[in-house]
Amino acid sequence: MRAHEVASVVVLDASGAQVLLVRDPATGSLRVPTTHVEGGERHEEAARRLLRDIGIGQAQVLDPRLGLSQDQYACLASETAVRHVDHCYAAAYPSDPAAWSPPRDSSVAWVDVATADAAGTPGTAALVRAGMRQLAAHGTPAPTEGR
Ligand SMILES: [Zn+2]
Q1: Distance of alpha carbon 116 from alpha carbon 30, whole angstroms
Q2: Cα(104) to centroid of ligand 1, in Å?
Q3: Which of 71, 90, 126, 146 could staple 131 via S-S, CB 3.0–4.6 A?
Q4: pTM of the model
Q5: Each residue's pLDDT expressed in tens, for the chain with a length of 147 residues
Q6: Domains of the chain
């Protein structure tokens, strides 16, 4: 079976103290927001669409991507486990996470990076730390002018 291409994003706020993660309603575990790549999208475009869907389209997707990983799991498009190739990016959110409200029926939330370390899967914690390193190397995004 053909592998599914997905894009995921580690979104950090400007201070690098908070990260946007998805909480699994059943287990409470945290994971990085992920979306299937659709149509002829490039992976980075899928990552930006994902951020718009979450309501943080102003977040800046950093280049190059953080990493590439593969895993076998079932999804909405396949009842049986299928190989997923995940292109993970880091993104910098220039605004105050406290002023953000999640989309309806969404389980995404800003959490302290320390919480992500404790409650995330080992893979999630490693991605968050990699995202923090990339954000530090890029510098924080410039604040929006005129505010
Ligand atoms: Zn899939």
Answers
A1: 7
A2: 23
A3: 90
A4: 0.88
A5: 789 999 999 999 988 899 999 988 888 888 999 999 999 999 999 999 999 999 999 999 999 999 999 999 999 999 999 999 999 999 999 999 988 888 887 899 999 998 887 777 778 889 999 999 999 888 655 555 443
A6: 4-138 (3.90.79.10)
